[in-house]
Amino acid sequence: MQTVFNYMLINVAVSDIISLAFCVPGITIRFFRHPRGILGTLICKFVTMHLIAGITLLVSGLTLTTISVERHNALLRPMDSRFKLNGTRTKIMICVIWGFSIAFVLPLFIYQKYSDEVEDCYLDWGNIAAHTFWGCLATLVGISVSTLCFCYFRILKAIYLKNIIPPNQGNRIEQDNRDRRKIIKLLLTMTGLFFVCFIPFVVVSAIGVSTYSVFYQVLYFLVYCSCCVNPVVYIFQSANYRAGLKDLWNKRTDRQPERSLELWSRARVES
What we know:
Strand order of the largest sheet: 1-2
CATH superfamily: Rhodopsin 7-helix transmembrane proteins
Structural class: mainly alpha
Shape: globular
Strand content: under 5%
Number of helices: 8
Distance between the termini: 46 Å
Number of strands: 2
Number of domains: 1
């Protein structure tokens, strides 16, 4: 199980869980009177404005981009060890992704404040800084999308048009061929759904659409949908995931009678 692919999927799962964990408090606080002063500023930074989710969403996008490059090199350049990820390189890459994402969102943490005059959170920076930040984010998203399209286009072209896997060389090779195609299909679905949910929000944020408009709120909702959709994708497309989930559920149901008997025995001893 300790493969490059699984490490990267775990990283996406962790970032999704953190996004959703900070989503609920950020939405709930809108129904109450927001704290003021220093406390209000701290809550704006870490809860109200969902800046933690900004970090984790960047982590998800960069991880999916890294997976596409890794799959591209593994399938089309299997003998080239220069860009091949192993266990150590994968862990370093994950650390780099988190470090870069935190550094990228750090200006928002620095300049996010609470205003007693407008009774709301606001970014205390000028138009030039705002345009620069959102321009850099749009550029980063553009580079990621271009990289994903390039890698998956070459992978699909090699598998389906050039047939890089030699035919009629035994059941094992045929099975490997099917497994690779399933993985590519899974990754394409994950990546496509993520960017469909994420890119529209980046666009409306960059052009300055009001955060109180219905259009903005719908796109904001889609961003968090991207954090929930991956388990559903796994269930429909991964037999291993379904088997593991079923096994986990069976262990849970088998454990319940044992737990009930243990509690009953403990209650008798205490009585």
